[in-house]
Amino acid sequence: MSIQFKHAGIWLLRLIAAFILIQTLFFKFSASEESVYIFTETGMEPWGRIGTGIAELIAAILILIPLTTWIGSLMGIGLMSGAIFFHLAKLGIVVKNDGGLLFIYALVVLICCVFLLLINRQRIRQLLKNSGIIKL
Q: Of residues 131 and 66, which shows the higher confidence score?
């Protein structure tokens, strides 16, 4: 695989994850009917909606910065794991007749973040080794 193709693929993963995370912020911060419904059903309205929005904004920014992509990816994995859990445990895959779109977005972001984390595993290992947390 050429370096240019790999580099473009990594940026595509970053852009997809960050775009979806940022695109949903408007709905969280404007208290759209769907967002209020979701966070009311999960018992976290309004603090969970606003807090999740802030965390997703931070994750998106970190994903777009090459040196911090791995941190944003970890955050994205945690956030999307929570979203998927609530879809499966409480909300259902389809929420307010969205056809499962929010669930699919969560899966797409999760998959992108997992791949980004795997791509950055050497950087993470080196940071852990340099900090003395682990001996390799």
A: 66
Tens-place pLDDT, residues 72-123: 999 999 999 999 999 999 999 999 999 999 999 999 999 999 999 999 988 8
Taking the C-alpha atoms of residue 33 and residue 42, their distance in angstroms, rounded to an integer, is 14
Query: Who's near 20: CB < 8 A, 6+ residues apart?
Result: 105, 108, 109
Which residue bears the tokens 């879809």?
87
What's the rounded Cα separation, in Å, for the pair 136 and 130? 10
Q: Say how many C-beta atoms besides its own lie within 10 A of residue 54's C-beta.
A: 13
CA gap 119, 122 in Å, rounded: 8
pTM of the entire structure? 0.91
Residue 96 φ then ψ, to 5°: 50, 45
